[in-house]
Amino acid sequence: MRRRLEQFMLGRYGTDDFSKFLLALCLVLLVLNMFTRVQLLYLLALVLLVYCYFRMLSRNISARAAENQRYLDGTANMRRTLRGWKNRVVQSKDYHVYKCPSCGQKIRIPRGKGRICITCPKCRTEFEKRS
Ligand SMILES: [Zn+2]
């Protein structure tokens, strides 16, 4: 079975970031449809799903790769922002982030070191905070 699937997918495009985004959007539309009962959302989700399968099974790899690249280029800023938020949440367990009172520079301080004197690396202002 696995071998037959591999044989079938040979020379086909498969999944990429754009496909994953389309599938996630499809799922969101289906959930929205469950709560709102707007049939247009269901239809849109179905169209997205068909388009997604068309892309995955397509043999025109260069065209699909170009679509994916356009998607990646168009969403680069948004994905960078989301990654920044995620990093901040992950780091908030181990670090405090303070702003310098005079220049506004963000300074990352490890947690649990008690009351410490912080020297801003940008303007050399000193201030005290609990870490
Ligand atoms: Zn400063």
Tell me the major beta sheet: 2 strands, antiparallel
Helicity range: 55-70%
N to C succession of SSEs = HHHHHEEEE
Gap between N and C termini: 57 Å
Rg (CA only): 24 Å
Query: Would you count the extended β strands for me?
Result: 4
What class, by secondary structure content? alpha+beta
Compute the number of helices.
5
Unreliable segments of 5+ consecutive residues = none
The ligands found in this model are: zinc ion
The domain count comes to: 2
Basic shape: elongated
Percentage of residues in strands: 15-25%
- Mean of the pLDDT scores? 94
Write out the strand line-up for the largest beta sheet, numbering strands in chain order: 1-2
In short:
The protein has 131 residues and is an alpha+beta fold. It contains 5 helices and 4 strands, in the order H-H-H-H-H-E-E-E-E. The structure holds zinc ion.
Q: Explain this structure to me?
A:
The protein has 131 residues and is α+β, with helices and mostly antiparallel strands. It has two domains: 73 residues, no CATH class; 37 residues. It is 59% helix and 15% strand. The protein has five helices and four strands, in the order αααααββββ. The strands form two sheets. Strands 1-2 form a two-stranded antiparallel ribbon. A two-stranded antiparallel ribbon has the order 3-4. A hairpin with a 6-residue loop joins strand 1 and strand 2. The termini are far apart. Bound molecules: zinc ion (ZN).
